[in-house]
Backbone:
């Protein structure tokens, strides 16, 4: 992990700068959120159903909108994020909205060093695992934080989507489907505001589906299902078209845009 510390620091600095820009963006629509609009998407709502009375750990929560949306639905929530600015805004929103979520600032891989309780649900969503060099410690941490019989859920952009370089606005296939080597990108703007003059400096890694699934199985989780979908709930790739369902897809959709996995922590042997 030490050899990756510089990568994490650069990413943390970028995410700290993104917070203020994203909080003002149409995509995050903070004013509507404050008035009661949920930030959650159909995939995670269908997968987790009624969360009232359940404890929920949200990994890589940015500035907490999804965490607070689950809190509004009656879950007891803890959000984790590497960004000081993200956690600061999340705490402000939690107080302003009179909710009872908690937020912890740390590298997601260090979660168990900061949080000791176990949860009914652990969730991560949309653009999270690509910031991690190795999914084995990630999956181990998830298993540590899940109650026996608890649910882990991930909905994430499909690894095929990350084989392309989008920096010039046109997708160009450049990276391996499951690439161990770090990928560095530097560009103006963010996915929520392409016109921003902020320079994003980002280190990331590509993880194929087999790596995601096998890391979870190795950590003691039982996969309930793996689904792939041709639509994305977010307009974050070039030239996407909005569908009747409100999702986004490419004009010629030749590969899935997102996947979801639901898993359960196995019961301890008798």
Residues:
């Amino acid at each position: 992990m030490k050899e990756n510390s510089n990568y994490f620091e650069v990413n943390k600095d970028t995410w700290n700068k993104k917070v203020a820009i994203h909080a003002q963006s149409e995509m995050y629509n903070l004013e509507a959120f404050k008035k009661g609009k949920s930030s959650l998407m159909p995939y995670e709502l269908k997968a987790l159903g009624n969360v009232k009375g359940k404890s929920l750990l949200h990994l890589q929560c940015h500035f907490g909108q999804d965490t607070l949306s689950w809190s509004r639905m009656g879950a007891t929530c803890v959000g984790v994020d590497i960004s000081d600015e993200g956690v600061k805004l999340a705490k402000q929103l939690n107080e302003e909205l009179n909710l009872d979520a908690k937020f912890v600032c740390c590298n997601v891989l260090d979660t168990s060093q900061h949080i000791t309780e176990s949860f009914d649900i652990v969730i991560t969503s949309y653009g999270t695992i690509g910031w991690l060099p190795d999914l084995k410690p990630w999956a181990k941490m998830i298993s540590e934080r899940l109650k026996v019989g608890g649910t882990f859920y991930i909905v994430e952009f499909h690894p095929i989507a990350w084989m392309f370089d989008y920096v010039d606005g046109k997708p160009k296939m450049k990276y391996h489907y499951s690439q161990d080597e770090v990928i560095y990108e530097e560009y103006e703007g963010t996915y929520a505001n392409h016109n921003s003059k902020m320079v994003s400096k980002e280190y990331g890694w590509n993880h194929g589906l087999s790596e995601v699934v096998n890391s979870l199985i190795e950590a003691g989780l039982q996969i309930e299902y793996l689904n792939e979908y041709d639509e994305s709930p977010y307009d974050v790739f070039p030239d996407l078209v909005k569908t009747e369902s409100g999702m986004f897809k490419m004009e010629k959709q030749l590969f899935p845009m997102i996947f979801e996995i639901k898993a359960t922590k196995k019961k301890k042997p008798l």
